[in-house]
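Hello forum,

I keep getting stuck at the same step: I have a sequence, I want structure tokens, and every attempt I make locally crashes halfway through. Rather than fight my setup again tonight, could one of you with a working pipeline run this one for me? It's a single chain of 300 residues.
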Amino acid sequence: MTASANRPTDHSFVPRPLFGVGFMLAAMAALPFIDVFAKILGEEGVPILQIVWARLSFGALVTLPLALQKVGVAGLLPRRPLYHGLRAGFLALATFSFFSALTYLPIADALAIFFIQPLIVTVLSAFVLKERVGPRRWAAVAIGFVGTLIIIRPGFVELNPGSLLALAAGGFLAIYFVMTRAISGQAPAIVTTFQTNIVGATLLSLVVPLIWLPPTPAQWAIFLALGAVANFGHFLVVRAYDYAEASLLAPLAYTEMIMATLVGWYFFGDFPDGWTFVGVAVLIGCALYISIRERAAKTA
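Reply #2:
Ran it on my machine without issues. Output:
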């Protein structure tokens, strides 16, 4: 499951587009392994809530040294704990929904449906952040929704619960991104990432004992790998935004579909059908158009 990041504001922006593109492509190659680890754990019977807890807990553990280096112990506490708690809650819901979808769907199929998230962000940005969205971008959102219907094909194939869960994951993450956009620039990106992880892990720690199953040593290792890969991928995204504009990098997030297809085929023998690729092409086209329109609006 992909991630978003804001360009850090604690140092000057140095435009080096090729560096930014390289970091972003590397991030999109790494992030699908989060889904591989989650799917392996789910198939071994580890409760999904426990996997989400591990993703956030080990994510906090991995980012703690970097966050301490940035701001010290005093700067680790969020200024608006209730707001950060709500953000972390939506991230946990998105992660739980997506990991649950992986128990029903191949990685690439779940990710294809999840790609509706940028379209939902556009809708929420208009109504929540009061950003101006013109008629052509509204048309792109509508067409993108048609792309999602092509992937799911309701009425033509039996509706898979995983499709609904992937849609829910996209919606929850869109809310998380909009809330993140509203506080962008208030803290370095690595500090915000740590705060989100630790707050989410703390909230889940209140309920995860109810469903806890003792992990095997191999599962503990996968938990650690899950948190490490997630934060490594997010770090690469942050570095990408150090060197290139968001309008250039955002469309590259869709290259994650390539690696997701490859790892799904390699580890689980899954491969999307032709209609899934058609729907993904529609979604990518719409997201690219929205990105181009946003760039044009900012430079107008």
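The chain has one domain: 17-299. If your local run keeps crashing, start a new thread with the error log.
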